[in-house]
Amino acid sequence: MYAVYHKGMPMKPRSLLYPFFGKRIANHKLGAVIDAFCVIAVAAGTIGPIGILALQVSYGMDSLFAIPDNFLVQVSVIAFLLFIVIISAVTGIHKGIQWLSKLNIIIVFILAAVIMLFGAGAFIIDTFISSFGFYINNFVTLHTYRGDNDWLGFWMLFFFAWFIGFAPMMTMLIARISRGRTIREIIMAVAVISPLITNFWFSVVGGSGIFYEMENPGSVSGPLDEGGLPAAL
Fold it and tell me: What is the four-CA torsion angle of 199, 89, 180, 183, rounded to 10 degrees?
């Protein structure tokens, strides 16, 4: 934010290196390479979730509406998602992106409320509080865990690479929408409120899965074994 709004740097990932290279990075070839790598990283990080979502939606449509779970349906889902993304990007941050963001938040709150009221609400709250407390109490132990190389090599490194790939563009987005706000407001929104809400949402969805699997063994693990990740989701 400082480099862009106070030093006149472009709203591009290369501006993140302003503290090291100064304004030279704005027109340097290295800046173009950095921007290109960031775009490729975001594209690579987006392709995977879209593909997983297409498999999930296709399987769900087959289970709920008897629509065949095949390649054509999966491609149609991806095409629809790409259409939404393109419209959102073309209309700009104050129209399409903002509208989709608000709609997403509304849907999330509605789904969370329905699950909490008619599902395993007490279990979810208990799981969220106890898990959060366990995480805080074992922060160092969890972050230095080296006991399972297979899990570390797949899960942790995969998501670390995923998040790092999105980091430059997310930084640009936060800088773009945070102009006029104080540092305290940005820290509270990005580093405190957002993680808490995200963790609670994970507890709602994941906690529901754990609850129903415990109450009815095989309700989640069964579809996972038969149809893979899309079926379990």
Answer: 30
Give the residue numbers spanning the domain of 153.
2-232
Dihedral over alpha carbons 204, 207, 212, 215 (to 10 degrees): -130
Instruction: Render each residue's pLDDT in the chain as its tens digit; 233 residues.
Output: 667 777 788 888 888 888 888 888 888 888 889 889 888 888 877 777 787 888 888 888 887 788 888 888 888 888 888 888 788 878 877 777 788 888 888 998 899 999 999 888 899 999 999 988 998 899 888 888 887 777 777 777 777 777 788 888 888 888 888 888 888 888 898 889 988 888 898 899 888 888 988 888 887 877 777 777 766 66
Residues in CB range of 75: below 8 A, 6 or more apart: 54
Indicate the number of domains in the chain: 1
Other CB atoms within 10 Å distance of the CB of residue 9:
20
